[in-house]
Amino acid sequence: SQQGEEDPQALSIQEGENATMNCSYKTSINNLQWYRQNSGRGLVHLILIRSNEREKHSGRLRVTLDTSKKSSSLLITASRAADTASYFCATGFATNKLIFGTGTLLAVQP
Amino acid sequence: DGGITQSPKYLFRKEGQNVTLSCEQNLNHDAMYWYRQDPGQGLRLIYYSQIVNDFQKGDIAEGYSVSREKKESFPLTVTSAQKNPTAFYLCASSTGAGSGVQPQHFGDGTRLSIL
């Protein structure tokens, strides 16, 4: 079963623009993580936000978490062609398991 | 360089054949995971192991088997009972349980196809 649902499924923007992806989930979580996957490669961990945190930054990435709405967003500012990838949210539980969403495919046009 | 190595990168299975996918990590991580990824879908958990000589079924374990005899290694066997094995298989690892849920580190996957 998949806990997280990303929105939109696909997003196309121009270089320099900001990209926002959203993730909704169903049950209480320990934390929420975002990953990037380049075509044909494994996933790379981007950022982890704990259930008691509301916002976190890492370089050009900004993640928010609203536990009352069971949703999170990932903002990539000043996007680059190299940001083209699929982005997944994953919800974490005390069992050390992650449940991944279906992903957002981001295309950044040069 | 620390990381996870999956091999082979591409694998072909004949009807009725079992095949084994290799996953090795040198990150000294206690926990290891196997996921299956189908086109346009997210990752689904097949099996996971939080410590040597112990493993648990994930959401889609039927037709798969694993072993965890060494901390560094977590091979996945796709058996002939798995009727639709064509997919991209990803192995991951993380630090052990008991410290909250940790980020997972991934290998670059094995693409399995049916001949």
Structure commentary:
- The complex is a heterodimer of chains A (110) and B (115).
- Chain A has 110 residues and is mainly β.
- In chain A, 0% of the residues lie in helices and 56% in strands.
- Chain A has strands at 5-7, 10-14, 19-24, 31-37, 43-50, 55-58, 61-66, 71-76, 85-92, 98-100, 104-109.
- In chain A, strand 6 (55-58) and strand 7 form a beta hairpin.
- Chain A is globular.
- With 115 residues, chain B is mainly β.
- In chain B, the strands form 2 sheets. In chain B, strands 2, 4, 5, 6, 9, 10 and 11 form a 7-stranded mixed β-sheet that branches.
- Chain B starts with a strand and ends with a strand.
- The mean pLDDT of chain B is 92.
Count of DSSP-assigned helices of chain B:
0
**E-strand count of chain A:** 11
Structural class of chain A: mainly beta
Q: Any idea what the radius of gyration of chain A is? A: 13 Å
Q: How far apart, in Å, are the first and last alpha carbons of chain B? A: 35 Å
Task: Please outline the major beta sheet of chain B.
Answer: 7 strands, mixed
Low-confidence stretches of chain A: none
Q: What value does the average pLDDT of chain A take? A: 93
Q: Give the low-pLDDT segments of chain B.
A: none
Approximately how much helix is present in the residues of chain A?
Answer: under 10%
Cα Rg of chain B: 13 Å
Proportion of residues in extended strands of chain A? over 45%
Along the chain, the helix and strand elements of chain A come as: EEEEEEEEEEE
Query: What would you call the quaternary organization?
Result: heterodimer
Number of strands of chain B: 11
> Which descriptor suits the 3D outline of chain A?
globular
Q: Helix-strand pattern of chain B, N to C? A: EEEEEEEEEEE
Q: Shape of chain B, please?
A: globular
Mean pLDDT figure of chain B: 92
